[in-house]
Specification:
Layout lengths: L3 E8 L2 E8 L6 E6 L2 H5 L7 E5 L8 E2 L4 H9 L13 H4 L4 H10 L1 E2 L6 H5 L1 H13 L7 E3 L2 H8 L14 H14 L4 H6 L7 H18 L4 E9 L5 E6 L9
Helix pairs in contact: 7-10, 8-10
């Protein structure tokens, strides 16, 4: 029996995805998927999926937001990356940006409204929230990650030297590729596996999520926070991070 794992990152209205056979790392593929269910219900049927999207949504936002976001924000303090505040569930499922802002302000202390950048990615949050509420068994297979938390762990808990966007982008992308190769992912998947329609940074973020999925299956991933929180529906509120110890034999 094979154990496929997967990593997913939102990408231009779809999902950048990567799959790896944990028992035979020579078997892998990357693709652009329209829906998360396409990869979960696909031929590989991965046992574990790391995904860069908030899981476990608050009904009311207080005290800096979700416990997972506070933990990740504290870990990344001093680095280039930020962890955006996740709006209340009602705002995530709003029908318009104006409605989302009003619902968020009404259910947050102090009141805040999601940025337009945040609103633009709520389609990904809604998709995963709806999927995990409709199909509870998937909660054992789908796990939230934060790519920059993962890369920092792989970098020995040190901030990366270059950003993946803007000035220094070329250096930032190569720095992340080197970390993914060091973590044990196939070099061809890292260096030449990017599928059509997927940005270079999205591909690398999906691969970072793949590393975390591997470490979850191997029982060495790190939960932030520990123990994880839960939302009103029982969904986990936790960001998983890799062990940061390099590859181990599968």
């Amino acid at each position: 029996m094979t154990r496929w794992i997967a990593g997913l990152d939102g990408c231009r209205g779809a999902w950048a995805g990567a799959l790896l056979d944990l028992d035979d790392p020579s078997r892998y593929r990357a693709g652009r998927f329209a829906r998360v269910s396409d990869i979960l219900d696909g031929p590989e049927s991965p046992v574990c999926v790391g995904i860069d999207v908030p899981i476990g949504l608050p009904d009311r936002v207080e005290g800096g937001g979700r416990v997972a976001d506070r933990a990740a924000r504290a870990y990344l303090a001093g680095g280039r990356s930020s962890v955006f505040p996740v709006p209340p569930r009602a705002a995530v499922h709003a029908g318009s940006y104006e409605e989302a802002k009003a619902l968020s302000r009404a259910a947050s202390v102090p009141p805040f409204a999601p940025s337009i950048q945040c609103w633009n990615i709520t389609r990904y949050i809604r998709e995963v929230d709806d999927l995990l509420l409709a199909r509870p068994p998937l909660r054992e297979r789908v796990h939230e990650v934060h790519p920059e938390v993962a890369f920092r762990r792989l970098n020995g808990d040190r901030p990366l030297a270059s950003a993946k966007k803007g000035p220094g982008r070329r250096e930032g992308l190569e720095e992340r590729r080197a970390l993914l190769r060091w973590a044990g992912l196939p070099a061809m998947l890292v260096d030449a596996g990017r599928p059509a329609g997927v940005g270079a940074d999205d591909h690398l973020d999906a691969l970072a999520a793949l590393v975390v999925a591997r470490d979850i299956v191997l029982g060495r991933a790190i939960p932030m926070p520990d123990p994880p929180g839960r939302d009103r529906h029982g969904l986990p509120v936790v960001i998983w991070a890799p062990a940061g110890e390099g590859p181990i034999p599968c």
